# Entry
Amino acid sequence: MPGPGRGLGPRGFLTEEEKKNMPKVTSALMKRILSYLKPYWFQFLLVFLAILLSAVLGLLPSIITGRIVDEALVGRNMHLLVRLLIMAFVTMAASQIIGVMESYINAWISQRIIFDMKNQMYDHLQHMPHAFFTSEKQGNIITRMNTDISGVSSVISGTLASIVSNVATVVTTLVALFTMSWKLAIVGIVVIPLLVLPTKSVGRTRWMILNESQAKSDELNQLINETLSVSGSLLVKLFTREEREYERFVKVNEEVTQLQLKEQRSGKWFRVIMGMFTQLGPLLIYFAGGYLIISRADPALTVGVITATVALINRLYRPIESLLNIHVDFTRSLSLFTRIFDYFDMENPIVSKPDGEKPDVSNGDIVYDHVAFSYSPDKPLLTDIHFTVPGGQMYAVVGPSGSGKSTVVNLIPRLYDVDAGSVSVAGVDVRDFDLKYLRSCIGVVTQDTYLFNGTIRDNLLYAKEDATQQEIEDACRIANLHAFISNQPDGYDTVVGNRGLKLSGGEKQRLSIARVILKNPKILILDEATSALDSISENAIQDALEVLMQGRTSIVIAHRLSTILKADRILVVKDGVIAEQGSHEELLRRGGTYRELYETQFRQVLDQENEKPLPEERQNDQERA
# Structure
């Protein structure tokens, strides 16, 4: 079966990584795998019966061929010849039809199991905590969802069906061979080791070449991905490295081509060798059968029996070769399931209580009670965060880079859970809330705005699916975005592109703000919400944000002094604690961390904004005044 992901050796061989990570076969693992097959047990029964019937019918054309030789041709019976030929055709046709039916049912089963597993995996991952997505590689997640689960299809329709089919073919063929002539059957079986040995030897050589070719192909793909991406191609152009990158590409591409040619050449010689050994079996049977007939050592042996034996022995070799490698297929199948189960078994510590509370959070206080938190046990980030945001007020959170400002606010919607202490809203610990209700009460505008690759309308409706056109337009007017959208040829149906790349940073952030306005949350969290806006755009929506924050408990993380000055209270996060808190004037007078931030960050930004020339329209207005 084709294994999941890259790095798998060819059929018959396990890579060193596969050998090292070989799953342990336990009854619990097997029961868990069978639990996905159990709902389709009737369809599986039909498949197994079809395989067995197809294996039996597959014998008949070879047996009928023997009768054609002995009875119709030697007996010169034309009527019997026609009848036997029709019988052979009917049995072959029946075998093929049953094979198609078996293949169809098998494919249906495998696709339904994939459907079930993908639904289960997507639902499981959707509810995993935010920490999972910040630590796990996105490529690993996509591989589990697509490659690994899709590989189950190969296990069901390939490995499992192949085992049953090969066993049925071998057993029925051996019974037929020994029934016709046990002597010729033994001669045919003697050749089997000659087929297996070169397969192992040549296969190992091809495996080594294939691994080397795969490594070079990965290098080529990496080069393509780096230099032909948007950012990579821009870098190449800016540093005029087109010729150098082309030379690199030609060099690696040549190495890949040579390795692939080498692998193909070894494959061709392998097929030649296998073809020779495959023909050796029938030749030995003809020799042995001829000797027995000519020497009259076996009077019961006929030319038809020899002919039928040759046909059957050719039918025997391939399934035996496949069964000899069954441990590889079995190991890879188990590895595939264990990789999937590893994800299913990841615990989600942030779950909603069955009887989660749904208190009214309007104007409710947000209380941090001696909160401690760390992303890793050996590196505590927050050690003793203790403060209260009174309901309906706006608090600003400032601090040095990396001090944990965003982490502090992320604890409110339970993107993370505290290690110690508690965060409560309206007198209820957020861990006791109904999680969906809690997050529905909170609106968050982040610095890194994410938009889906759809229309502006689609991204806005993500906040409120049943929003009317009037509600959408009102939210965009408040965010100073409606005029921009109206000037687009497709208006609100304008496609924003992957991650919103067709929009500027300011337009994306205003769209994000409009989305939160449309949500109309009880609690508002702004994490550098105006960082991507120029001062004019920021001023245009600052009043709108103030209107939005009225009557709402708000926490704002900001680097702009103009935003901080509007806060009811300023919290300074440093060294895992609230180092200082108070008004702007109070904190400046203390001469502590806030004063340092003011001198190094806020004041510089304020001076830069004051030094910016006014737009031409505003200059003209002032001149006219």
About this structure: Residues 242-294 form the longest helix (53 residues).
